[in-house]
Each structure stands twice: as C-alpha cells, then as structure tokens.
Write a structure and sequence with these properties.
Order of helices and strands: HHHHHH
Structural class: mainly alpha
Mean pLDDT: 80
Number of helices: 6
Distance between the termini: 63 Å
Strand content: under 5%
Helix content: 55-70%
Number of domains: 1
Number of strands: 0
Length: 221
C-alpha cells in the first residue's frame, strides 16, 4: 500500500463496517469535549446576562462556520453554537433532519420556556424531554447507518477515517443528549408528564417538524 489515502484496500462492505466501528475512548473523549464546550458557553452567557453586559469572553466569537450543512442552524443558543463550532473545526457533518430539529427546539425555547402561562411551560418541558430523546436516537441511528452512506467499492484508508470520525461523532451526540435529557428530567421531574399527549411517530425518523400540528401548544390534551 504505497498511499494509504488513495490506494484501494478492500471491496467488502462488511470489512468497511468493522474498520469504521467507533473507538470507545475516542467517543467518550469527544463527548466530554462537546459537553465542556456547551457548559462553558452556557455559563458565560448566564454570567453576562447577570451582569447585563455584552458577552466578550466567548471563544471563537469571530469564527465563521465553514461547512454548509452547519450553516443551517439559525441563531443558535450560545451552548449550541459552541458545539457547532467544535464539530465544524473537525469537519463533521450535520444532517438536515438534525438541523431542523435544533432550529425548532430553539424556537420552542424562545416562545414557551419562560411563558407566563403555566400550561405552556409544562407542555414545553414535556415536549423538550421527548425532543432530547429524538435527537439522541437520531444521532445513534446516523452513526449506525454511516457505513451505508460512506461505503464505496475500492474504498481507501481516508474513506475509513472519515466514516469512523462521523460514527464517533454520532455516538458522542447520542451520549450527550441522553445525559442532557436525564439532567433536564432531574430538574423538572415533578413537572413533566402533565401534558404528555405529544408523541413522535418514529423517534428515529419523525424528527421535530416545525409545522406539525403536534407542535401546536394551544392544542387541548
């Protein structure tokens, strides 16, 4: 193998799947890095809000997202943008389904998280819990299906590295959002479930469609 990036190494899809299986330590390390970036950005935002001052301590405040798929996030919250920047620097993709999911979650938070209506807030907390589950499961599904997306006959070591990186990011995303859901459930465990009529048809595929009637907060249970 003279050039590991260009010379074909196999034509077996099974071998490709095995070669791209996520490394547990790499996945945990990435997950910790993403959660650290999110918590740091969130803490800075909260402190700046407390001081009623502009956020001047943000990292990469002038950083411009390079990947077109990651530009699909519309005015993301600071903690979301911190993760977006981290993954953009690693050249890791963001699916259209997940971009729409995050955008809808962002819109929900702006409109209902601090609503004066108790009913609206309760419905938000319940739907936000289910959304975290859907986000986590979607990342897990994308990680498992990455070999189908990236496999090609006569694949190279570079193809293996790209697919493995995407799979590790997907598993890290699943881990992070599973933890986020648990944390949110701990904070709001006595409030969630009052308005639990909202359901995803398929948590893997039916991801948070903005115009869905299931997101009508005025709908009666």
């Amino acid at each position: 193998m003279k050039d590991k990036n260009e010379k074909p190494i196999s034509t077996s899809k099974e071998e490709f799947e095995k070669a791209t299986r996520p490394n547990v330590l790499a996945t945990l390390s990435l997950g910790a890095s993403l959660m650290g970036a999110a918590f740091k950005a969130g803490a800075i935002e909260m402190w700046s809000s407390f001081k009623k001052a502009d956020v001047t301590e943000k990292e990469d405040v002038s950083y411009e997202i390079r990947r077109e798929d990651r530009k699909a996030l519309h005015e993301p919250k600071p903690h979301v943008q911190a993760v977006n920047i981290t993954l953009d620097k690693k050249d890791i993709s963001l699916s259209a389904e997940q971009a729409e999911n995050f955008n809808t979650q962002n819109q929900m938070e702006d409109e209902y998280q601090y609503s004066p209506s108790f009913a609206d807030r309760e419905r938000f907390f319940t739907k936000d819990q289910k959304r975290e589950t859907a986000i986590a499961e979607r990342f897990n599904l994308e990680a498992d299906e990455a070999p189908n997306k990236f496999f090609k006959e006569d694949y190279t070591e570079e193809d293996v590295a790209i697919c493995k990186k995407e799979r590790e990011a997907g598993k890290a995303g699943w881990l992070c959002h599973t933890i986020f859901k648990a944390a949110k459930n701990t904070v709001h465990m006595n409030r969630c479930g009052i308005y639990s009529d909202f359901q995803f048809g398929d948590e893997h595929i039916d991801i948070a469609i903005k115009n869905s009637t299931q997101f009508d907060f005025n709908k009666q249970s």
